[in-house]
Amino acid sequence: MSIFRRLRDLTVASVNDALDSMEDPVVMLNQYMRDMEVEIGQVEVAVARQVALEKKFRQQWEEAQSLIEKRDRQVKLALTEGEDELARRALADKKQYEARAQEYETLYLTAADAAAQMREKLAELKEEFYKMRAKKFTLMARAQVARTQKQVNQAVVGMGNQTAGKGFARMEEKVMRMEAEAQISGQWKQTAFGLDNALSGLEKDDLDAELASIKAAMQDKKTSASPENHS
After folding, report:
1. Cα separation of 4 and 12, whole Å?
2. How many of the other CB atoms lie within 10 Å of CB of 115?
3. What does the record list as coiled-coil region(s) (predicted)?
4. What is the H or E stretch that residue 58 is in?
5. Which of 30, 67, 82, 119 is least crowded, fewest Cβ atoms below 10 Å from its Cβ?
């Protein structure tokens, strides 16, 4: 396969995929129904014209038949009256109407047969239209269900991939980190408070010892200054 043929096939495939994605079933079904309605309307006009033509040829055939009967009576009447020449003329005219009547009969029968066939085709087309119209509502309902189901499935699948899902996961991680930091901070404060208490206790013990030392020194000084010690 040549490179140009492969490129052509790829191009055709791409175009077909694009067209397929653009075809909304609901829109296309409505368009098909409108096309069928237009076609039915055109056929109805054609049938009406054919029926009119059938009636015209039948009327001409019947008129020719009536003139044949009239000329036949006139031929007999002329012969009865001894008007042979007039009877001959009437007979010749009768022959012309007979030829014309045969022609009109052929046209009428042909037109009638065509009109009957066209009526039959029109009836079939209308029956098909009614079937398609009933099927259209079913297909439209199925398309709507499929479209809704697809949207739901895409939403569910997209929760883990789209921005909203990622955002929720990031915020959850941040909240967990904040909770951990708060817990660690609380433990550190409790430890520091305990240390402060312990150190405070030590400082209190130191003060007591220092006070005791000061009291002892004062007592020794007082004892040294007593008169008993000087005598």
Report:
1. 12
2. 20
3. 87-135
4. helix 25-80
5. 82
Cα separation, 62 vs 197, in Å, equals 133
Q: Look at residue 205 in the predicted model and tell me its pLDDT.
A: 54
What is the pLDDT at residue 19?
43
Tell me how crowded residue 222 is: count the other CB atoms within 10 A of its CB.
Answer: 9
pTM here?
0.51
Residue type at 75? V
Residue 172 is encoded by which pair of tokens? 């959850």
The full set of domain ranges for the chain reads 3-158, 172-225
Q: Which residues, other chains included, contact 71 with Cβ-Cβ below 8 Å and sequence gap of 6+? A: 90, 91, 93, 94, 97
> How far apart are alpha carbons 92 and 164 in whole angstroms?
101
Residue ranges for the chain with pLDDT beneath 70: 1-23, 155-165, 185-208, 211, 225-231
The count of other CB atoms within 10 Å of the CB of residue 68 is: 18
Report how many helices (DSSP H) and strands (DSSP E) the chain contains, helices first.
5, 0
Place of tokens 């951990």: 180
Q: Are 104 and 60 in contact (CB under 8 A)?
A: yes
